[in-house]
Amino acid sequence: MYIKKWGRVINVLDYYLFPISYAFLTFPIAAMLCAIPILVLQYRKHGYFNKFRGVLLYLFLLYLMNALYLVILPMPASRHNAPMSSCAQLIPFNFIQDIMAETRVVWSDPSTYVRLIKERAFLQVVFNIALVVPFGMFMRYYLRKSWLTCLVASLGLSLFFEVTQVTGIYGFYDYPYRLFDVDDLFLNTLGGMIGFVMARWASSHLPRLDQEVDLSQKRVSYTRRAIAFMVDWIVLVPVVLLLGVLNVPGAYFLATSVYFVLIPYLNGGRTLGKALVRIRITGAGEHLSLREIGIRNGLLYLVFGGVHVLFMNLYFPGILGPMYLVGLFLMDACVFVHVLVCLFGRKQRLLHEQKSGTDHAIT
Q1: Cis omega before residue 83 (within 30°)?
Q2: For residue 261, is pLDDT > 60?
Q3: Collapsed DSSP state (helix, strand, coil) of residue 143
Q4: 300-318 average pLDDT score
Q5: Minimal CA–CA distance to 135: which of 35, 66, 42?
């Protein structure tokens, strides 16, 4: 990372604080976009959501955003930028020469060593090392990777940074606006390995991530069920629309009967969405019966969902239309209150679960 912009050296701290401030400003947006992927990752890998792991993943996301913004910001004012006099520094350990050329330190006088922390060339080395320290810590503490994997991954991350710079963000700009520096590859990789070593000390002061958990005792949250529900309808809506375009009679009822009744019955209580987050519908016995899944999802999708579909597709003459609409509103209000009661009362079960004698379990 070269800290010259259009031929002039800018304040070192301002240079780093500018992209960091943008990373923190845009982090809430990235956090919302990554919420579902992070939850699904936790459910898939561990079977449940661990709050501490979630915090670590979000911290890692924030770190990656800071690192990326430090690499690409500030950007030129126009995509059609002017070429640099040189776009690559290929002499290994050239940073030592830079420090020696710029420093005001008198090496025979230790009292002058403090001047290093105010000098551009030295601070650039420190920041390039520090940039990848959190990455190395994450590789060891969270991912449990070996030193060799951390070494290769840190080098790969640094190479990604340098290629991003030297290609002008992969051709977005006419010319590179940052210098490809071979020293950065060494310094970033060194930072990753320092983080790997630091993680050994940090892990003794942080909670363990490999504790055994009895998944049979874990409650399936409504958040997890909502993700499964959303995935199922992302899959099913195009099918319903296609059947409607083909003028298949009762397209909605046919599709939901197959997807939410027949498939879970044949697949051990799992739809695609439920399989994604590792949950299944369970009945009174070892195997879910057709009656149980029929009552459960029949009430939910064929009855409750069906009356809404009929309202949108049928013609109600005279006063029947407004009456039907009022009835739908009252039913939806009752269902909404019922869901809230079940949501805040952990021992409460939804109506279609009570009537069918079914529940959810983690696979």
Answers
A1: no
A2: yes
A3: coil
A4: 87
A5: 66
